[in-house]
Amino acid sequence: MARTSTRQEDGSVGATLNMSAFERLRADILQGVIAPGEKLRIEALKSRYGIGASPLREALNRLSALHLVEKIDQRGFRIALISHETLVELAMTRCWVSEIAIRESIRAGDAAWEESVVLAHHRLKRYHETSIGPDPEWEALHRQFHFALIAACPSHWLREFHETLFDLADRSRHIAVLHDRSTRDVAGEHQRIVDAVIARDVSGAIALLNQHFRITADIAISAIEPQFPPQTVE
Amino acid sequence: MARTSTRQEDGSVGATLNMSAFERLRADILQGVIAPGEKLRIEALKSRYGIGASPLREALNRLSALHLVEKIDQRGFRIALISHETLVELAMTRCWVSEIAIRESIRAGDAAWEESVVLAHHRLKRYHETSIGPDPEWEALHRQFHFALIAACPSHWLREFHETLFDLADRSRHIAVLHDRSTRDVAGEHQRIVDAVIARDVSGAIALLNQHFRITADIAISAIEPQFPPQTVE
DNA sequence: GCTGCTAATTTAATCGATTATTTTCTCCCG
DNA sequence: CGGGAGAAAATAATCGATTAAATTAGCAGC
């Protein structure tokens, strides 16, 4: 039943059901549609996505390698949990990885890269100014902005790892967003980051990005904190 | 046909065939038993490992997320290629990642960690001295040594990424080893690294590790260089 | 001899059914 | 009334068969 199309009825783009399942699951996880810790029963997923067990399991296996899903032998899959410790560790890791990535991107980036940063920032800023509150379009622009910053880093492994971490952070941000979002000057943070990057100020850019990530983490932490001690299971 | 055993007849340890396939494939790739660029036909793998298509494909999906295998839509899987550019980029990435990992490991490591480094190094050195040439036992000790160095880095994501890169480098080293290995003073390199780490000399440790990785890469590069321009396919 | 087209063959992707494990439920005992 | 032992139900893992796609082979026309 492999489809030849590159676009399924449901909006996913993969040429194979495996790809399609991967993209849809990833999207649902990142959006928080499926909650952290939730058990993923194959039968449930089959009827939810209308995709058979094999491509689903293949997709889940890949997602587990990206830490979005936890795979437990003989016990299936569950959405990766989010805990205080996880969020702290994630923030640290993002700071460290982006430290390298931004440094090397600034080092290797040429004029064209610099322009693409300005452009990505402009697009994000413009959209942010004309619209209120978060939405998928803003999310996409925000992601593109952060990727533009480190796009000149010559290691695709590092860029990809950066994206993996971004995904994890994005997920917790989406879940936290339901909670709080007002008091943050995201636009200002982005502006200062761009300024530092354009000025080729490596340590300034690192410091600002670190702060950016820590604020994100703090919001997420305070969003899960009010809850009672984390239950292991749903 | 899932087995309940934790150890298959063939020496792999996974409780599921998926795990078993993953481990065996990974081992064969790292050992260079399956050559870079080689096409992985499911039927061939089925008879080779005596495992069905489903667990094999699931394992391959995970290996592709770790960059050991390349997954191409509708066209199956192949072992990741090794090229000059790949090796250079890999060496860079390892340097950068280990820069962070060793820094944070030294920062966070306590006395127990320090002892585990000394111990891992001793085991490696002892084995190295009593035996000549590379073998699986030495490989394991070498790996453990490098993991011990960064074991105190508090980010499990970073440690895992470090391992992923180690795997990739190990593979090319194994393939290159058939070529050349004599002129290198690995033991000396390790000794200097340990000395710097124990002295909590962050920049020294970084420099030495960088050199260590670059030498590894250079050997691998010179091993593939003599060949004619890389053929796209086997 | 080379190019491009179609048919045959191989291979990848996926499904439906089967087997093995885990989980849940019951019921009995202390 | 808690604590299992064992049966029943649910779920995960896997196989064998099927379908779709890519590749190869064969051939016609230039």
UniProtKB/TrEMBL annotation, chains A, B:
Recorded hits in Pfam families, A to Z, give: FCD (PF07729), GntR (PF00392)
GO MF, any single term: DNA-binding transcription factor activity
Q: What PROSITE patterns does the database record attribute to this sequence?
A: HTH_GNTR (PS50949)
Tell me where on the tree of life, at the top rank, the source sits: Bacteria
Record key words, sorted? DNA-binding, Transcription, Transcription regulation
> What protein name is recorded for this chain?
Uncharacterized protein
Q: From which source organism is this entry?
A: Rhodoblastus sphagnicola
Question: Which lineage?
Answer: Bacteria, Pseudomonadati, Pseudomonadota, Alphaproteobacteria, Hyphomicrobiales
